[in-house]
């Protein structure tokens, strides 16, 4: 069902990084296409960025081709490109929380978050969460979320994320993998408008274990879980050898690939579509996307940051908002 032309809220992220400049560049590209509302200190936008401060999100309904609507927060200290200021930390956190509140109260369609710098938030405001996603989950009151990297060419979900490779077979369990499959299935259905999602399940080991000769997890429990969930109505294939899952013909046979660890998922999507990959958080009660890059302090303020991932993140959030 189509929703009103509500804006995609864009939290500013770390002011010293490239977040403000890629947001401004994204607005310049999408101004006639996507309603947007930037949350942050307007002084941190690149000099000369056309913007207008709004008192209420309702003033940002509909595209704004002449100026980027800004829900302003005075951060106190100015932005110094490439140098995170701990004095900004509490404001950065507050902009994330404000964005979540706007989506939850129905005055914004979705939330797109610019990258944060966790050390700066910890140093300046005792940020207690492991990362951005965990903070969003805490704000939303949910425990289990799933990271999807998505582009027009491929969607991938790592079942385990930022852990050492030796820890993967210890943390990967029938319960955890089932949960990732369930959340991914629901996300594709509810946020991407795919009525009957098809999921490809990668094997953990080379050649999906090759009958137990290259690892036993597929034989011991992954195959049984996939078979069981197929009986429950899920459209699953696998466990499949990961080295044959990502060529063009194979990608036509599924809507998302469930991978067993970080690099198994991120290498193929970054190889196929490095600039256009978007981070989508599944399992939240609202839409959240983010560009698939960090703060990039080394190039901040130089006018050379590539805004493509931010453009795609905003565009995808808008599209998902109208598919949900």
From TrEMBL:
GO molecular function: 4-hydroxythreonine-4-phosphate dehydrogenase activity; cobalt ion binding; magnesium ion binding; NAD binding; zinc ion binding
EC category name: oxidoreductase
Keywords: Cobalt, Cytoplasm, Magnesium, Metal-binding, NAD, NADP, Oxidoreductase, Pyridoxine biosynthesis, Zinc
Location of the protein in the cell: Cytoplasm
Reaction catalyzed: 4-(phosphooxy)-L-threonine + NAD(+) = 3-amino-2-oxopropyl phosphate + CO2 + NADH
Lineage of the species this protein comes from: Bacteria, Pseudomonadati, Pseudomonadota, Alphaproteobacteria, Rhodobacterales
EC numbers on record: 1.1.1.262
Gene Ontology CC: one annotated term: cytoplasm
Pathway the protein contributes to: Cofactor biosynthesis; pyridoxine 5'-phosphate biosynthesis; pyridoxine 5'-phosphate from D-erythrose 4-phosphate: step 4/5
One GO BP: pyridoxine biosynthetic process
Binding positions for substrate per the UniProt entry: 132-133, 270, 279, 288
Membrane-spanning parts: none
Organism: Sulfitobacter geojensis
InterPro entries attached to this UniProt entry: PdxA, PdxA_fam
Main location: cytoplasm
Subunit structure: Homodimer.
Recorded family membership: Belongs to the PdxA family.
NCBIfam families (alphabetical): pdxA, PRK05312.1
Cofactor(s) essential for the protein: Zn(2+); Mg(2+); Co(2+)
Record's cofactor remark: Binds 1 divalent metal cation per subunit. Can use ions such as Zn(2+), Mg(2+) or Co(2+).
Keyword Metal-binding: yes
Further facts: The active site is located at the dimer interface.
Biological role stated in the UniProt entry: Catalyzes the NAD(P)-dependent oxidation of 4-(phosphooxy)-L-threonine (HTP) into 2-amino-3-oxo-4-(phosphooxy)butyric acid which spontaneously decarboxylates to form 3-amino-2-oxopropyl phosphate (AHAP).
Name of the protein: 4-hydroxythreonine-4-phosphate dehydrogenase
Binding sites annotated in the UniProt record for a divalent metal cation: 162, 207, 262
């Amino acid at each position: 069902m189509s929703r009103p032309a509500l804006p995609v809220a864009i939290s500013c992220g770390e002011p010293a990084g490239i977040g403000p400049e890629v947001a401004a560049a994204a607005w310049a590209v999408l101004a006639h296409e996507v309603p947007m509302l930037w949350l942050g200190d307007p002084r941190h936008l690149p000099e000369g960025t056309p913007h207008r401060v709004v008192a209420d999100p309702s003033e940002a309904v509909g595209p704004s081709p002449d100026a980027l609507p800004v829900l302003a927060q005075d951060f106190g200290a100015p932005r110094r490109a490439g140098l995170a200021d701990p004095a900004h930390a509490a404001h950065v956190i507050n902009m994330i929380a404000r964005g979540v509140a706007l989506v939850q109260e129905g005055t914004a369609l979705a939330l797109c978050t610019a990258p944060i710098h966790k050390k700066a938030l910890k140093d300046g405001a005792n940020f207690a969460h492991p990362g951005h996603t965990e903070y969003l989950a805490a704000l939303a009151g949910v425990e289990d979320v799933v990271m999807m990297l998505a582009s027009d060419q491929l969607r991938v979900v790592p079942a385990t994320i930022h852990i050492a490779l030796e820890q993967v077979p210890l943390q990967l369990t029938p319960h955890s993998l089932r949960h990732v499959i369930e959340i991914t299935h629901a996300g594709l259905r509810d946020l991407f408008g795919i009525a009957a999602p098809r999921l490809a399940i990668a094997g953990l080991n080379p050649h999906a274990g090759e009958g137990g000769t290259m690892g036993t997890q597929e034989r011991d429990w992954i195959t049984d879980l996939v078979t069981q969930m197929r009986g429950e109505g899920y459209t699953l294939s696998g466990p499949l050898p990961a080295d044959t899952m990502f060529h063009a013909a194979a990608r036509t046979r599924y809507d998302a690939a469930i991978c067993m660890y970080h690099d198994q998922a991120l290498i193929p999507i970054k190889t196929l579509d490095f600039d256009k990959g978007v981070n989508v958080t599944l399992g939240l009660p609202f839409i959240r996307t983010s560009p698939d890059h960090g703060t990039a302090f080394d190039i901040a303020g130089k006018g050379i940051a590539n805004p493509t991932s931010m453009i795609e993140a905003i565009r995808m959030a808008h599209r998902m908002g109208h598919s949900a």
